Amino acid sequence: MAFLPDDVRVAVRRLRRSPVFAALAVTSLALAIGANTAVFSAVDAVLFARLPFPSPDRLVVIWEEHPARGWSRFGVSAPAVTDWQRQARSLAHVAAFTRHSANLAGPERPQRVDVVEATAEVFDVFGLRPLAGRAFMRDEQLPGRDAVVLLAHEYWRQAFASDPGVVGRTLRLDGVPHAVVGVLPPAGQAAFADAQVWRPLVLGDDTRRGARWLQVVARLRPGVALEAARGELAALARRQEEAYPATNRGWTAAVVPLRDARADSARPLLVALSAAVALVLLIACANLAGLMLARIAERDAELAVRAALGAGSARLGRLLAAEGLVVAALGGAAGLALSAALRRLLARVLADAVPGAAGGVLDARVAVFAAAVTAAAAGAFALAPLSRVRRGSLEQALRAGGRGTSRSRFRARRVLVAVQLSIAV
Fold it and tell me: How far apart are CA 163 and CA 184, in angstroms?
């Protein structure tokens, strides 16, 4: 159905005459489309988007598990990390990390920040190179030499206005002075979503094999298959079980691709969230369809006169659908703009459950999704009034419009309407 400029002008004019309806319709549609777009950006970032690291298919997550007891996704002990770093030939780099929050005395007022403590190998695992300054040195993982930090790119941009001169400054982290030695690239946000400050992880002389408190990421050596790495670490776990039965009996190691590890933990929540916002969109479309039908019902006499003057079903259909399509276009544009704020809110809400959700951005795929949702919403409610253009119902409306009035008065009104509408027909 091709729409003419006159159809759009008439639709805009009618919406301007009903500002309350227009505001309600556009706002409800914008909220529904914005929520769906924000959730899709998180789903796309976690489940589908390519990780911004060199050879991302070689990145793996390693955790310990106890199959006999049904325990999975346990942390890793410091001695196990050391064993893998020294003995695992299938792994090029192995890094351990943990996360917590701390008080940071920044450039203005003190604030609570998210901190990642990681071993120096983390930069090799993810292939990260600081934008400014340098990465951690291995000797900075020793007690008393760890008072250095790197700033995440987004935190550096927001808190320090992207000032490269921040390198070399001293910040107080939980009251302890730390020297800023570098600034991370944007890809660092994909490695550890929402982390604002990175500092060295000090393991010291931790020999507690039963203390499984670390998280581990690693990079497979070129040419090494995932199954080979799994077999090697399972064999290492059996040797550790024999050497340390008190703490390692029944324990083994699981090697999982980084993308799968993120997706498996996040998929149920993201699917449920997607279904919830889709239901909100369906409810909004159903309500708008009802409102549009109610507004069109008031125009039965007008439509009957148009039909009597020669307007065909296609012409009347365009007139009825144009108003809904204008509402859909305005709601889609507002929803796309609103999705930016909703994405940030969603990333904060899902920070713990879905860490990768913060990586969602407004790119071409998200824009295409928003356009598709807008088109689907338009089809759901903007075309509903087309049932009013049946010839029989229009003739009935015309006869009903004449009851209770004199014949001459009706004729005068019909002529007046005919004169007003003759330009548009």
Answer: 13
Q: How far is CA 80 from the centre of its chain?
A: 35
How deeply is 70 buried, as exposed, middle or buried, from its count of CB atoms within 10 A (0-12, 13-18, 19+)? exposed
Pair of tokens at residue 385:
């009034």
373: β partners: none
Q: Where are the alpha helices (DSSP H) in 44-182?
A: 78-87, 122-126, 153-160
Nearest residue to 215 (alpha-carbon basis) of 308, 117, 353, 108: 117
Q: Find out whether 81 and 141 touch, Cβ atoms under 8 Å.
A: no
CB 96 within 8 A of CB 62: no
Q: Tokens for 281, please give them.
A: 């969109």
Phi-psi region of 175 (alpha: psi -120 to 50; beta: other; left: phi over 0): left
Q: What's the chain's length in residues?
A: 425
- Looking at residue 44, the DSSP 8-state letter turns out to be I
Closest to 217 in 3D by CA, of 315, 112, 81: 81
User: What is the spatial distance between Cα 366 and Cα 49, in angstroms, rounded to a whole number?
Assistant: 11
Q: Pairing relation of β-strands 148-151 and 176-183?
A: parallel
Using CA atoms, how far apart are residues 317 and 303, in angstroms rounded to an integer?
Answer: 10
- Close Cβ partners of 184 (under 8 Å, ≥ 6 residues apart): 128, 130, 131, 150, 151, 152, 153, 156, 198
pLDDT in tens, 266-315: 788 888 888 999 999 989 888 888 887 777 666 655 666 665 555 555 66
Query: Is the separation of the CB atoms in 188 and 129 below 8 Å?
Result: no
The residues pairing with 170 across neighbouring beta strands, listed in sequence order, are 179
Q: Using H for helix, E for strand and C for coil, what is the string for 378-406?
A: HHHHCCHHHHHHCHHHHHHHHHHHHCCCC
pLDDT one-digit tens code per residue, 329-388 = 899 999 988 988 888 787 777 766 665 655 556 678 888 888 999 888 887 776 666 655
Strands 215-220 and 59-66: antiparallel
pTM of the shown model? 0.67
- In a 3-state reduction of DSSP, which class is residue 218? strand
Q: At residue 68, what is the residue type?
A: A
Q: Judge contact between 254 and 236, C-beta under 8 A.
A: no
Contact (Cβ atoms closer than 8 angstroms) between residue 46 and residue 356:
yes
The alpha carbon of residue 357 and the mean position of all alpha carbons in its chain are separated, in whole angstroms, by: 5
- Pick the range with the lowest mean pLDDT from 107-121, 227-241, 251-265, 281-295: 281-295
Amino acid sitting at position 144? G
